[in-house]
Known about the structure:
Blueprint: H1 12-23, H2 31-38, H3 42-53, E1 58-60, E2 66-68, H4 70-73, H5 84-99, E3 103-109, E4 112-118, E5 133-135, H6 140-147, H7 151-159, H8 173-186, E6 189-192, E7 200-207, E8 213-221, H9 226-246, H10 276-288
Amino acid sequence: MAGRSREGGRTVSSKVAAILLALTNGRGHTASSLARQTALPVSTVHRLLVDLAASPVVQRSIDREYRPGPGLRHVACTPVAPTLFSHGPLVMDDLSAALQLTVRLGVRQEREIAYIEKNPGFRPGTSFPNRSRLPLHATALGKALLAFAPATLVQLVAVGGLPGYTPRTLTNIDDLRRALILTRRRGFATCEHELAAALCAVAVPVFDSTCGPIAAIEVLVPNLSAEFLAHITPSLMVAAGALGRELDVRVGSDRAARPLRAGTGADEFSDSPLSPQLVERGRDEITRSWRFASPAR
């Protein structure tokens, strides 16, 4: 059949593609080295290289090595801009692997949160679009989003009432506002048995270029003890800041590593239990398994 060879049922075009891909890996190649990389006979590789070297696609040097020619080096490549939905799950994978805890990424949709979830282990996480929804007022994700959003949004959320899911749910708007002020002061939100009796969580917002929250990242934790917060929160802040920077969000690098002011009359950053040493430790924990920042991914 035209376009096919007798060697392993591989088409000529697939062999050429394999050779060209191998050529881009490293500096110089011989026909023998390319044959090993492509699992093709040396005679086949040599024959195809002779044809390719007669064009601008492949160059043969004086030392008889083959390299990509100008035609191959200048092939246009249109980069795809990263998005929250494409890169967010990668950050969740790394954070879940580093902390060995369940991680959620949420975005606000009107008065609810649409979210995806990654459990520790090798099973893939969920992805957008996703029908799963969470309430804004009874989750760490929601508080992280509301705390840095316009005050009118908090009022809008409270208009239809704040449903109680457990005895710990904040069903009064004044209690919710106090929780949001604390969130702004510390730079992270918490949820302690407010959505479900056995559920605790910590969340950090992901900011856009105007310092508004476009998403939030949450970690489900067994408790909210000071020791556990000191272990979890630095890594969570580093992950949220890294996602913001990957999305070309130009927020100061220190914003992701320290708490934020609540505005006029807010306490200073020193009120937070997070020290620079703890933040640095969290950064180290994340980068040990960091795959998302690699250009090859």
